[in-house]
Amino acid sequence: EERTRDAETKTHALEKAQIELKESAEQLRQSSNYKSEFLANMSHELRTPLNSILILSEMLAENHDNRLSDDDLEYAKVIHDSGEDLLNLINDILDLSKVEAGKMDLWFREMDVYEIPQHVHNLFSPIAKQKDLDLNVDVAQNMVEIFHTDVKRFHQILNNLLSNALKFTEQGSVNVKVELAQVTPTMKQISDTWLSISVTDTGIGIPKDKQQLVFESFQQADGATVRKYGGTGLGLSICREVVKLLGGWITLRSTEGEGSTFTVCLPSLPDGNISTLISEQEV
Ligand code: ADP
């Protein structure tokens, strides 16, 4: 009888612990939701006054009647540039909080894969030229023409990877490669068509022990790069989360002092239905 009582006490304790665990998980989830909601609201409220700062400082910097002294003109430009940095930061925080709160709306539609080179060149040729870097985009021969994904988010990922590649490279090249990914049986359950897009640079590279870290929020490979190159440390965490939302994953191969390759693997999803998410480890 004593043994039965003992077992009962143990079961009770176990049940109690389970309930407590559930409650704290719920509390955690709720406070995480509050945090995301707060950040989303704050970011929105910050953007309104910031827009006035941006528009007005831009008008000032145009210096229509040549009323500004050289110094004043310089100040107006600094106000405008700093405003833009702040806007980028706010947008990043807003994006990250949206993803975390599961509130990032996706719109899957057709994307013409052969338009990728044009997109890249339009946006990044000026910076590449300025830094005297080669910028190449190569679309594989056997590539499908039409691919289904959230095109806006796809561009966001690509832009993030390219601006990093160009930022952290002082000489050499940045190469973008678009091809069909090898589809394993697990991947086939999600889509027959997977795209692999990689951005390779001949830049500073990322040390082995920092390669996981760079995908975390507000993390940068080392303090010196922050001072030299600026940035918020949010770009790659946004990339990772958005890529996950699109059903894929992102990997990094890098050698310090030689360069880095970021590769994104994405399924074509005509109905935008990601029923099963798989992680790279399963493939
Ligand atoms: P940010 O570039 O704003 O700092 P990211 O999240 O995009 O934030 O990148 C995080 C860090 O990863 C960077 O600060 C940098 O240290 C490292 N990193 C990212 N891309 C590259 C790259 N192509 N080459 C070298 N280091 C990189």
From TrEMBL:
<feature type="domain" description="Histidine kinase">
    <location>
        <begin position="41"/>
        <end position="270"/>
    </location>
</feature>
<protein>
    <recommendedName>
        <fullName>histidine kinase</fullName>
    </recommendedName>
</protein>
